[in-house]
């Protein structure tokens, strides 16, 4: 073992000392309750203000998402942040074309009935209106410096966790979003000219909610219905 100031080499790999914050039990309880109350206010929003959102806020949100754990720490994701109006409109047209097919032939009557309470249809104006679109791509593999493929592990699980952090970071910043998954999503790879190792995973419009916005009066399942404690 080699020690060099704060860095420790174990089997040739660098490690650093970790100093997690430690809170009293009362503070832990208070912090966990406040965080729950913050996120319990989160709602999926389909009507966006066109008000400007600074790029550095989006950068901080993406950096937060990138702190997610990932298989072998390969971080198999790319976050494409789009504010260009022409590019957003291209994405909207391509998304609506796929959604029209979905509503007319791919989706079951049961599925369409379940969507009625959400007030959604094949028209996606929020893809033009939101000041930012964040398109998340999962990287099926990477490349070593010599051009050889590098395998990634637990790709969908890793990217899914990162998307969860992304959504909470958006809400924490006072912005809103919607998890949009037009199916199939491969048009995003074409429109954004992504490499062959990247596949579209999730599309998130990001911005401020329109004033006087109405959202469905949905209820979340109780703790008793979503958890089992073994004590």
What's the layout of helices and strands?
Layout: E1 2-4, E2 7-10, E3 13-16, H1 25-40, H2 55-65, E4 77-82, H3 85-106, H4 109-115, H5 126-129, E5 132-139, E6 141-143, E7 149-151, H6 155-172, E8 176-177, H7 186-191, E9 198-207, H8 223-226
Antiparallel strand pairs: 1-2, 2-3, 4-5, 5-9, 6-7, 8-9
Separation, N- and C-terminal Cα atoms = 40 Å
Largest β sheet strand count, sense and barrel closure? 4 strands, antiparallel
Shape: globular
- Could you name the CATH homologous superfamily? NADH Oxidase
Spans where pLDDT lies below 50 across 5 or more residues: none
Using only C-alpha atoms, the radius of gyration works out to: 21 Å
Short description:
This protein is α+β, with helices and mostly antiparallel strands and 231 residues long. It has helices at 25-40, 55-65, 85-106, 109-115, 126-129, 155-172, 186-191, 223-226; strands spanning 2-4, 7-10, 13-16, 77-82, 132-139, 141-143, 149-151, 176-177, 198-207. Helix 2 crosses helix 6 (155-172).
Describe this structure in words.
The chain has 231 residues and is an alpha+beta fold. The chain has one domain (44-211): 3-Layer(aba) Sandwich (NADH Oxidase), CATH 3.40.109. It has 8 helices and 9 strands. It has helices at residues 25-40, 55-65, 85-106, 109-115, 126-129, 155-172, 186-191, 223-226; strands at residues 2-4, 7-10, 13-16, 77-82, 132-139, 141-143, 149-151, 176-177, 198-207. The strands form 3 sheets. Strands 4-5-9-8 form a 4-stranded antiparallel β-sheet. Strands 1-2-3 form a 3-stranded antiparallel β-sheet, with no helix packed on it. Strands 6-7 form a two-stranded antiparallel sheet.
């Amino acid at each position: 073992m080699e020690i060099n100031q704060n860095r420790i080499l174990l089997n040739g790999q660098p490690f650093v000392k970790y100093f997690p914050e430690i809170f009293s039990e009362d503070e832990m309880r208070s912090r966990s309750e406040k965080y729950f109350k913050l996120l319990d206010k989160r709602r999926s929003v389909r009507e966006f203000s066109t008000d400007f959102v600074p790029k550095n806020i989006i950068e901080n949100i993406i950096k937060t998402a990138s702190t997610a754990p990932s298989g072998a720490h390969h971080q198999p994701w790319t976050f494409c942040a789009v504010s260009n109006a022409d590019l957003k409109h291209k994405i909207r047209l391509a998304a609506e074309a796929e959604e029209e097919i979905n509503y007319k032939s791919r989706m079951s009557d049961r599925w369409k009935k379940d969507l009625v309470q959400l007030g959604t249809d094949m028209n996606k104006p929020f893809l033009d209106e939101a000041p930012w679109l964040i398109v998340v791509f999962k990287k099926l593999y990477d490349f070593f410096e010599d051009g050889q493929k590098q395998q990634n592990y637990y790709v969908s699980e890793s990217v899914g966790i990162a998307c969860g952090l992304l959504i909470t970071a958006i809400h924490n910043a006072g912005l809103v979003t919607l998890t949009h998954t037009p199916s199939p999503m491969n048009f995003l790879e074409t429109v954004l000219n992504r490499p062959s190792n990247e596949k579209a995973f999730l599309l998130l419009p990001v911005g401020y909610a329109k004033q006087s916005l109405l959202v469905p009066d949905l209820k979340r399942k109780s703790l008793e219905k979503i958890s089992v404690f073994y004590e």
